[in-house]
Amino acid sequence: MRFLKPIVLLAISCYGQSLEDLPQMADNSTNTPVPASSEASKYVLPPLPYSYDALEPHISTQIMELHHKRHHQAYVNNLNSALDELQKLRGQANPDDTDLNWSRVFELEETVKFNKGGHINHSLFWKGLTPAGTPESTPQGELEKAIITHWGSIEAFKTTFYKSILQQVKGSGWGWLVCNIHTNKLAVATSKDQEAILAPDKPILGIDMWEHAYYLQYYNNKIAYLEAIWNVLNWKEANERYILCLPHSFK
Ligand SMILES: [Fe+2]
Question: Which residues are the signal sequence here (predicted)?
Fold first, then answer.
């Protein structure tokens, strides 16, 4: 098991994620950033790929609405605000100017790091879920084969994955199944707060372990939450992410 290292998030390409996983810009028809008053690019909240009640009874409508509309939206808003202020600060002086308010710049860069991680992690999370009982909610394809090869069975993987999460995520964080794009090997990992998965790892499955993801329904019973969310994992999406991690012969 391992913790992911702290990251510098200003370069999106560092995340080891495919282009379709990246946050949508305001003008997603051309992928050209839309000039705002400060001419900064604007990130937007991606819509859920299902209705707010679609994951009932495993994840309640109330949690989904609050999680998406309030929490994820806050990451987006805070990210845009910090980027706006950073751009204004940097526009006031050349980058080598010692009079530049560097303490505020560093503070804002930390804010960008945290909120951009939150935006990307949640964007991946929503796409990684699906209503229970759908064809997508069953382990499948190359990923299923690779998990069985690596861990012996899907159940054995689940036990290892959840043990890692329960032992490693002490406060707020995420549990991940990742694939190394160089070795093509699968591994379980955890990240603190809103740290994202960095290359050479690629996120395949991600589970939000912040209390806002489960507390209203499961209180402090993380195991009950983990058992519930297993029913709504989108294995089709996970398999597609895994295939992108494999050598070209599998694509
Ligand atoms: Fe969350």
Answer: 1-18
Q: Which residue segments constitute the domains of the chain, with CATH numbers given?
A: 22-44+51-127 (1.10.287.990), 135-250 (3.55.40.20)
Q: How far is the CA of 101 from the centre of ligand 1 (A)?
A: 32
Give residue-wise pLDDT tens across range 79-97.
Answer: 999 999 999 988 776 666 6
Annotated binding-site ranges for Mn(2+) = 67, 122, 208, 212
- Cα(212) to centroid(ligand 1), Å: 6
The Å distance, Cα 41 to ligand 1 centre, comes to 23
Quickly state the pLDDT bin for 221 (edges 50, 70, 90).
Answer: very high
